[in-house]
UniProtKB/TrEMBL annotation:
Pathway: Amino-acid biosynthesis; L-histidine biosynthesis; L-histidine from 5-phospho-alpha-D-ribose 1-diphosphate: step 1/9
InterPro entries documented for this protein: ATP_PRibTrfase_cat, ATP_PRibTrfase_HisG
Function per UniProt: Catalyzes the condensation of ATP and 5-phosphoribose 1-diphosphate to form N'-(5'-phosphoribosyl)-ATP (PR-ATP). Has a crucial role in the pathway because the rate of histidine biosynthesis seems to be controlled primarily by regulation of HisG enzymatic activity.
Domain spans labelled ATP phosphoribosyltransferase catalytic: 54-225
Annotated organism of origin: Sulfitobacter marinus
EC number: 2.4.2.17
Keyword Nucleus (UniProt): no
Protein name: ATP phosphoribosyltransferase
Lineage, opening ranks: Bacteria, Pseudomonadati, Pseudomonadota, Alphaproteobacteria, Rhodobacterales
Amino acid sequence: MTIKLGVPSKGRLMEKTFEWFAARGITLQRTGSDREYAAAVGGIDGVSLMLLSAGEIPRELAAGRIHLGVTGTDLIEEKLALWDQLVAPVEELAFGHADLIIAVPAAWRDVDTLDDLDAAAAAFRAQHGFRLRIATKYHRLVREFLRGAGVADYALVDSQGATEGTVKNETAEAIADITSSGETLRANHLKILSDGLILKSQATLWRSRTADMDDEERLTLAALLQKLA
Ligand SMILES: Nc1ncnc2c1ncn2[C@@H]1O[C@H](COP(=O)(O)OP(=O)(O)OP(=O)(O)O)[C@@H](O)[C@H]1O
Ligand SMILES: O=P(O)(O)OC[C@H]1O[C@H](OP(=O)(O)OP(=O)(O)O)[C@H](O)[C@@H]1O
């Protein structure tokens, strides 16, 4: 059998991952048509490549269906409770840098910190009769962070994309999302709370702690990790 390596199936994350492996003598390439999720590995025997959604790689690693996988720290920590018992970081890949943050409308002059947000949330509820809404796809990380900060009077609204648009669309008052250049936040008239950094993320190579291996696969994994170190 083979060592299974899961990498993101599209976009910048896929391209940069291919470049990172190529620089270490392992060629990953898509085969077949543009739309076919078939792929091949060169430079080492006994490794098979699986093109997957970045968001699904944490679950595949945790279930032991892949031995190695590339995805962001944010997705690992969001999708896997007790993630460090299920996966272990092998290498930080130095791309895909993004900060998970809490942002509010730039026009909220009196709200710059989590304490301010807490006060604004109480006032919002008194005025509107429902809780201040925070749009995000990072439910676990946001809840944990706000619990630690003592902010309780809010409701999470699920947003799987275009999250910065929810404030303008009036489906949320604040957001928690990743930012890289900050352009999307600026374009949508949002500002980051001064103490609103939840997590710093980057693309990382992870090893499954649960995947089974026979002796041959163990040797292949060791040889692969040696090349990648
Ligand atoms: N603008 C960005 N700059 C840097 N990294 C980013 C940016 N957007 C997303 N990322 C990172 O890329 C990874 C994948 O993000 P995301 O879940 O948005 O992927 P996607 O492209 O929607 O893929 P999929 O829907 O297939 O899971 C995450 O770890 C995230 O932190
Ligand atoms: O700070 P910036 O450089 O502007 O990047 C941040 C944006 O990038 C990601 O969105 P993506 O393009 O993945 O689309 P999405 O909204 O569908 O997640 C993220 O969700 C932000 O919206």
